[in-house]
Amino acid sequence: MQFIDLKAQYAALKTDIDAAIQQVLDHGQYIMGPEVAQLEAALAKRVGVGHCVTVSSGTEALLIALMALDLRPGDEVITSPFTFAATAEVIALLGGVPVFVDVEPDTGLIDATRIEAAITPRTRAVMPVSLYGQVPDMDAINAIAARHGLPVIEDAAQSFGASYQERASCGVSTLGCTSFFPSKPLGCYGDGGALFTDDERLAQAAREVRVHGQSARYTHTRVGVGGRMDTIQCAVLLAKLPRLDWELQRRRDLGARYHALLAGVNVGLLTVRPGRESVWGQYTVTVPDRPAVQAALKATGIPTAVHYPRPLHQQVAYARFAPAEGCPVAEQLAQQVMSLPMSPDLTEADQDRVVAALAAAVGRRG
């Protein structure tokens, strides 16, 4: 069994993907070819914002967003400790200070009720993370940020296609940043990412930053990076878009089915809050004695993963940013979370196998 079945997806789309790649090979514009602008227009329309800027990875999207906001050394950015390192990495790379705010126990998402207390005169932005495919409480976060004149960057690396109060992830804040890493809800065949905004000034700054700060060829108006997304990767995503609605609905259906099948099993289920639709970028549960459970599932041929085994404030690279009181909820979740196989092409039969093996490993509720 595959943890994420990318081969089945390619088999379903092989003709269209092969033709899209061949078209790029034929025209030979491998950098900033026509497919780049085509994809940006299609994604901006889908998210419902004025601008989409494709970049070389989800990490680069976050970095470019902060550079477009002119983050300076010593500036603070409030974010979650329960996420991939890239979220804090980009802040630290620019000399900024990630300020970690603990998460909700039932979702793993940043606890909006704790954000305002973390704001100081040095706070420059708030960067919530849409973990496992669910968007956090953006209305509350945006309201707090607005009171303090702060921009909000949604780290939506795992949630493209999700929604919050009928608004698309990536379009619910000042800037939204996503990843097109192959395993994501919308994935290319290498690295890729995008940022989204309705702010024309920020969009123009991002476009300049991604090409070494150029406003015109060899005219460098700001410090930038080499952050362009390859034309071939854009072509792959364009070929995948017609199937995306089916895939997203399939993810929602499989997530709901996992929830129903696991209702009587001795595991913790993450909550999807009202008014939100998760795309289950990862289907994650909490389990007792995780190493033993993983070993039991592995013995039956079922792969699992842990996202994430150690919160960022306990990582060597970011320990200097750890809050004095720690982040106890994130620390507990990090010891218990375990992700199960999830992809649009997961079959119900394989899903039944996963649930049966998990129930055998942990038992059922009394």
List the keywords.
4-stranded mixed β-sheet; 15 strands; alpha+beta; 3-stranded parallel β-sheet; single chain; 366 residues
Helix proportion of residues, in percent?
A: 25-40%
User: Structural class of the secondary elements?
Assistant: alpha+beta
Number of strands: 15
Query: pLDDT under 50 segments (min length 5)?
Result: none
Helical run tally: 11
The Rg value, from CA coordinates, equals 20 Å
On the 0 to 100 scale, the average pLDDT is 97
Tell me the span between the first and last alpha carbons: 30 Å
Strand residue content: 5-15%
The H/E string reads HHEHEHEHEHEEEEEHEEHEEEHHEH
Q: How are the strands of the biggest sheet laid out side by side?
A: 1-9-8-5
Report the major sheet.
4 strands, mixed
Protein model, in words:
The chain has helices at 6-27, 34-47, 58-68, 86-93, 115-118, 138-147, 200-210, 231-261, 290-299, 328-336, 348-362, and strands spanning 51-55, 76-79, 97-100, 123-127, 153-155, 163-164, 167-168, 175-179, 193-197, 214-216, 219-220, 268-269, 276-277, 283-286, 337-340. Helices cover 40% and strands 14% of the residues. The strands form 5 sheets. The chain has a 4-stranded mixed β-sheet with strand order 1-9-8-5, sandwiched between helices. The chain is α+β, with helices and mostly antiparallel strands. The longest helix has 31 residues, at 231-261.
